[in-house]
Amino acid sequence: MDHERDAPADSRKLSLLRSTVVGVLAVLAALTAGHLIAGLLNPNASPFYAVGSTAIDLTPAPLKDFAVRNFGTNDKLVLLGGMAAVLLIIAAVAGILSRRSLSPGVIVAAVLGGLGIAAVLTRPDTDVVDVLAPVISLVAGVGIFLWLHGLASRATDADTLSTSTSRRQFMYTSAGVAVGVGVAGVGGQLLADGVDVERSRSAIGDLVPATRAPAIPAGADFAQLGTPRFITSNRDFYRIDTLLNVPRLRAEDYVLRIHGAVDKELMLRFEDIRRMRLVERTITMTCVSNEVGGPYVSTSNFIGVPLRDVFAEAGVKPAADQLFSTSVDGWTCGTPVADVLDRGLLAIGMNGEPLPAEHGFPARMVVPGLYGFVSATKWVVDMEFNNFADKQSYWLKRGWGQKAPIKTQSRIDVPVGLSTVGPGKITVAGVAWSQPRGIAKVEVRADQGEWVTAQLADEVNTSTWRMWRVGLDLKPGLHTVECRATDKAGYTQTDQRVPPIPDGATGWHSTAFTVQG
Ligand SMILES: Nc1nc2c(c(=O)[nH]1)N[C@H]1C(S)=C(S)[C@@H](COP(=O)(O)O)O[C@H]1N2
Ligand SMILES: [Mo]
After folding, report:
1. Which of 148, 208, 271, 293 has its CA 20 to 30 A from that of 398?
2. Are 515 and 473 in contact (CB under 8 A)?
3. Kind and range of the H or E run holding 269
4. pLDDT given for residue 156 in this prediction
5. Taking every annotated instance into account, which residue ranges of this chain make up the domain Oxidoreductase molybdopterin-binding (predicted)?
6. DSSP state of 242
């Protein structure tokens, strides 16, 4: 850029506005160019997503728990939004630092580009060719930066006759780049969405199991009082995973590898699984991250093949004590073989439909009685029989438990906390669960008084939640009620509060509300 030498230093300094525009557009161009190429190659190779996913994996467990607790299922959106905000600030600062010289901007672009390349190279769900996405991202970022910086410098040269032309040229080019950024971003997203999981799902049609789950009796929930309905709709089923974008795995492309301590290694396609004898089972799933009184518990009619049947041909060697499963995105999970063979399911359907994409389409594991992080691998593509001593799973490496049977818990759904109810007799109602033991009793007390035994709804099976209700006569004013469940093994919930990490929260749920006079 020869004009750099011609102009005196002062007049060569880019305006604040132009330098900011240069920085921000360069970074946006880098991100969206990478997103577009990733859309063509592999959506997981988008540098923005890859860095975000890596950040999730590297996040210390307490911070992750904080995120889940405070943002729930929106934690990923919060992360992406935060990343975008930080990037825009870095971009603006890099632009402003480059008012006199190109090097700060180039250095920032190179560092960000390097991060993108490193993230894509180390993701478990990307191939080597996918590195093209962050490389093009880097090239686009540096290229747009140099180009716009050159135009901005020319527009800044005070002594040229053509300054106004140069200014206009900078403006138009910036606008053009902004449009390009929008097109690349939207295009990349459309391409990523284009791997048509929905078409693959609907091509499967209704799943008809050989044995249906028994019908849910009308008396199984107290939904009219404010408990959840017994069967959670697919849309309302809680969702927990480490992913920014749901894997787009089509049933046509699906292969499950079964290997390790088996007599014969197996490769099963979706059609192979579907042709096995399908059963339907009503199961309540629970997340270990659920706080006392929390929402991460849901019930579905899962359709699938008992894992025992899936493994019959493979022949599991008796020495193996862990089923180490891996999802298409590289998340891993270790499940005790005894539980897997006793009651594990390779599920392909939920409530009569193929699994929704976010719940593991086309196939996932479900093992009643174990928290999801040690049993419920979604988008499962690899199952290896080995020993717990050999291989550590995703959450175990991050300080969570190795074995995590679901703890007996109960929750008050009504009255809603801090609400005003009554006057008259107050109905307290909620749910309790203790898969696979089953619930024997739920008790409620008000204001630390005597425990009152609640009425239990009809039991569906011992691997599902159980609704309860009780009527209390309470004087007008503020009250606190607590609940505790006893399972069929005779264990009554302890009042001792422990947090979810490492293997599930304990303690009694309590709710405060006001009774009207
Ligand atoms: N591939 C994959 N499978 C996963 C997870 C995950 O992060 N990735 N999370 C697990 C956890 S912690 C739980 S509680 C359940 C939740 O299943 P759901 O989202 O269908 O409710 O999925 C499990 N399976
Ligand atoms: Mo979980």
Report:
1. 293
2. no
3. strand 266-269
4. 80
5. 245-395
6. S
- Residue 15, token pair as written in the block: 């305006």
Q: Contact 434/487 with Cβ under 8 angstroms?
A: yes
Q: What is the 3-state secondary structure (H, E, C) of 145-173?
A: HHHHHHHHHHHHCCCCCCHHHHHHHHHHH
- Distance from C-alpha of 230 to C-alpha of 217, rounded to nearest angstrom: 9
DSSP bridge partners of 430: 412, 468
Residue given tokens 């048509």 in the structure block: 196
Strand partners, 467: 431
Is residue 258 pLDDT above 90, yes or no? Answer: yes
Sheet holding 425-433, edge to edge: 409-414, 425-433, 466-473, 455-456
Tokens representing 303?
Answer: 């359709």
Query: Which ligand approaches the C-alpha of residue 289 most closely?
Result: 2
Answer whether 366 contacts ligand 1 (Cβ < 6 A): no
Check if 403 has its Cβ closer than 6 Å to any atom of ligand 1: no
In angstroms, the Cα distances linking 370 to 63, 90, 309, 339, 487 are 24, 44, 20, 9, 15
Q: Do domains 218-398 and 409-515 have the same CATH topology?
A: no
CA of 186 to the centre of ligand 1 (A): 29
CB 466, CB 432: distance < 8 Å: yes
Q: CA geometry: angle at 239 spanning 233 and 243, to 5°? A: 140
The Cα 366–Cα 385 span in angstroms is 17
Output the DSSP codes for 115-141: HHHHHHHH-TT--GGGGHHHHHHHHHH
pLDDT by residue (tens digit) across 450-476? 999 999 999 999 999 999 999 999 999
d(CA 406, CA 369): 5
Q: For the chain, what percent of residues have pLDDT higher than 90?
A: 76
**Domain locations in the chain?**
2-192, 218-398, 409-515
Say whether pLDDT at 209 is over 90: yes
Fold adopted by 218-398: Sulfite Oxidase; Chain A, domain 2 (3.90.420)
Nearest residue (CA) to ligand 1, atom 5 = 241
Ligand with an atom nearest the CA of residue 394: 1
Using DSSP's 3-state secondary structure scheme, residue 512 falls into strand
Hey, what amino acid is at 293? Answer: G
Residue nearest to atom 13 of ligand 1 (CA): 372
Express each pLDDT in 312-348 by its tens digit: 999 999 999 999 999 998 999 999 999 999 999 999 9
Class of domain 409-515: mainly beta
Decide: pTM greater than 0.85.
no
For the Cβ of 327 lying below 6 angstroms from any atom of ligand 1, the answer is: yes
